[in-house]
Input
Amino acid sequence: MNKVVAGADEAVKDIPSGATLMLGGFGLCGIPENCIHALVKKGINNLTCISNNAGVDDFGIGLMLQGRQVKKMIASYVGENAEFERQMLTGELEVELVPQGTLATRCMATGYGMPAVFLLAGIGTEVAEGKEVRNFNGKNYLLEHAFDSDFAIVKAWKGDTQGNLIFKGTARNFSPLMAMAGKITIAEVEHLVPAGELDPNAIHVPGIYVHRIFQGDKYEKRIEQRTVRKRS
Amino acid sequence: MALNKEQIARRIAQELQDGFYVNLGIGIPTLVANYIPHGVDVVLQSENGLLGMGPFPLEGDEDADLINAGKQTITTVPGSAFFDSAMSFGMIRAGKVDLTVLGAMEVADNGDIANWKIPGKMVKGMGGAMDLVAAAKNIIVAMQHTNPKGESKLLPKCSLPLTGVGCVKKVVSDLGVFDITPDGFRCIEYAPGVTIDEIKAKTAGRLIIADDVKEMIV
Output
């Protein structure tokens, strides 16, 4: 079953304005750079984006914010983006802040076919407002719903023509969960190989979850906080 | 003399026990990794998907695919493992992580913590802090005792939006070490050169002084 498409433009060509998108990555680590560039070029707007972060001003989802393509952002941490903060404070951008583990688990619930989960995070805080609370074994939990996402867009390290994916290092983060959660899942990979070349024991996301796959033209892989030790 | 950040981190490192899995938050908590006592074997968890976090890479060895939760380039130590974000918070939620160290803007004398939002001013999001404080078995807060205006950050009740309720077990500030008890902050150690009177003056929440209070060794 061949899932390969020619490139980023083709992969995102049917994403309409107003769609809900999941975008993998943690900070700038493991973000689908090529698809983001294609979405910026395509110029669609009124998007709802679900992603742990919102990029920085001039990279990642930040590029889509610059073009006012995002109507609503669902994220856990948005501290690295001044344009985001400006749009949020002026009310141009609707924002739902979700605890990081809750965000991940709501993605997971979608991919596992579960409508909702009970989670601890946010009990007694403003995150709990309006949510159903259930007590289990003497502890209160919030009912948190699975996401409903039209598209999931992720970047993997390696993938094969059947859509099987392998991630590298901490670039894995939200990406397998989101890949499993999209009604249509688009995977861009650094290395695309023929089916049979990846070790089946090492697959993080089986191809059944992936609808389109391509090898990205280039990866900048920008580092947000370069911290090093001096060589003595 | 109040402690500097490195000294706060050094004091917290004394809380690490052999065999602990530990999550260190951003800021002062990150520095704790530099002072792990000799002979104490701990594994550091980074909530973006790593157990077995090592020090910063040597210049030139940095890898964009290998960062910590503060988005800093890091390394792994032998025996490390990568996983996705759901598993990462799964192990936190399931109580597998023994100790969480994080910073705070305010802590209340019942263990409430506020560290994610200043309404109308700072909008950054909670990241993983709400998940960590809701689930972790043992939470130590590293913080300055007062804000730049000199006002206490150890309060009867948090004024900022809460991150978690009744969850903090211990506070290590620049002035001392405080257990959270049903009677409020219990001062068990004071920083060298800091007086109990100064601690009393700078603690707005309920404060009791332990009978065996002693000078901190840092």
